[in-house]
Structures are given as structure tokens and as C-alpha cells.
Design brief:
CATH topology: Rossmann fold
Order of helices and strands: EEHHHEHEEEEEEEHEEEE
Structural class: alpha/beta
Strand content: 25-35%
Number of domains: 1
Low-confidence stretches: 1-25
Radius of gyration: 16 Å
Oligomer: single chain
Shape: globular
Helix content: 10-25%
Number of helices: 5
CATH class: Alpha Beta
Number of strands: 14
Length: 220
């Protein structure tokens, strides 16, 4: 059993026997115990992502995003500073310094506050994640034109597997404008053709960007 906490999530993750790693691995049971199945999936995708070329995947995803009309038209974009095996969007921020990039900072009660991205004002929190300092410029998330969301895995219908804390689910559920595009950012190997287990509070994404292509999602 181990604990993780950062904008992707917080929670105790149970160490379970690891299945053979494969992006096509099918969950054993979606209905019986979603919490157990999610823990199993988290362990699976954490291990799978350690075998991927994170740098190359990040470069390809940034190249796709940099030519996307919707991103080019956006003025305020909420994103994240990569942690661990997450796709690194740092070069995307550098390509478009004129845009207002928002980065989350963890607050008590599993809330997030959004700040303007300023590399010099990033500080490590107690879990080692770089996040904006409390005194950096705050951004109103209600003014976002696009939201780029990290994920351990997603399915083709926009269900997202995070780290278990519900930070993003709480944030997305409270958006004043639910029509703002919300895109999951992840490697192709972490995009499933089978439905992920879902709880009533889980928020779906509108699109998914991998190193291969962009996928529009929809509720089946």
C-alpha cells in the first residue's frame, strides 16, 4: 500500500499482482468492485508507462497540439507541469509564450487553484511536484478556452483514470461553463478500446490527444 498526492490525485493505492503488461489488457471485472479494478489498472499503467519513450511521445504530442486550430485560437489554456511519466508539455508553453497558461496548485480538501505559468515561480511541494508558488498570479479558470488534462489512461468514450484523489473530477464538475473543451493528454498505449470502470462522480473528457492522433470522444 502506498500514497500519492498531487493535482493528478491523492490516495492509497493497493499493491496487487501485476498482469502481463499490454495496452490491450482487459479488466477482469468492471461491475463487481470498481475501486479494486481502478487500483489494478493504476498499477498496470504506471508500470507500462515506465517502458515508454516519454521524451519522444511528448515531442510528438506537442507537435500535434502546436498545429491544432482550436489550441491556436485559444487565449487562456489550463494545463499542468509534468510529473513522473506524464507527457511533458513544457516545450508547448515555450512555443506560445503569448498565451496565458494556467497551472494548478494543490489546496486543502482536494481543491486546486490555478496560477499563471511562470517557470521561475515554480516550487516543489512536499511530494516533489513542481507547482506555482502561493504568491504567483492567480487565473480565473472560468475564462479558460481549453483544458489539457493529464491521465494515467483513458478509454475511447472519454472516461479518465487518474491517480485516485478526485482533484480533476471536482474541478471539472464545478466549471461554470461545461462546454469548455477538456482534452486528455496521454500515450497511445494508455488509450483503451474497452470501457474503464466509472464512479458516479467521474467526469468525462471531450477529446484525447496521443502521439498518433486526436480522438473525439462520445458517450456510447
Amino acid at each position: 500500500m502506498y500514497q500519492t498526492e498531487y493535482p493528478g490525485g491523492i490516495g492509497l493505492v493497493q499493491e496487487l499482482p501485476s498482469p502481463e503488461l499490454s495496452s490491450s489488457w482487459r479488466p477482469s471485472s468492471l461491475a463487481a468492485d470498481p475501486a479494486l479494478e481502478k487500483a489494478r489498472l493504476r498499477q498496470h499503467f504506471r508500470q507500462l508507462r515506465q517502458r515508454l519513450d516519454r521524451s519522444l511521445i511528448s515531442q510528438k504530442i506537442v507537435a500535434h497540439l502546436a498545429s491544432c486550430p482550436q489550441l491556436l485560437a485559444a487565449k487562456t489554456i489550463l494545463a499542468y507541469v509534468a510529473f513522473g511519466s506524464e507527457v511533458d508539455l513544457g516545450s508547448l508553453f515555450a512555443l506560445f509564450p503569448e498565451k496565458q497558461w494556467g497551472i494548478p496548485r494543490c489546496l486543502p480538501r482536494r481543491q486546486m487553484q490555478w496560477h499563471r505559468y511562470q517557470p521561475a515561480e515554480l516550487v516543489p511541494n512536499c511530494w516533489g511536484l513542481l507547482e506555482p508558488s502561493p504568491g504567483s498570479t492567480v487565473i480565473d479558470p472560468g475564462k479558460a478556452d481549453l483544458i489539457l488534462v493529464p491521465a494515467l489512461a483513458c478509454d475511447r468514450w472519454g472516461r479518465r483514470l487518474g491517480y485516485g484523489g478526485g482533484y480533476y473530477d471536482r474541478f471539472l464538475a464545478a466549471l461554470p461553463d461545461p462546454s469548455v473543451p477538456k482534452w486528455g493528454i496521454l500515450p497511445q498505449a494508455c488509450l483503451l478500446e474497452q470501457p474503464l470502470p466509472q464512479d458516479p462522480w467521474d467526469q468525462r473528457l471531450d477529446g484525447i490527444q496521443t502521439e498518433e492522433r486526436f480522438y473525439e470522444t462520445g458517450i456510447p
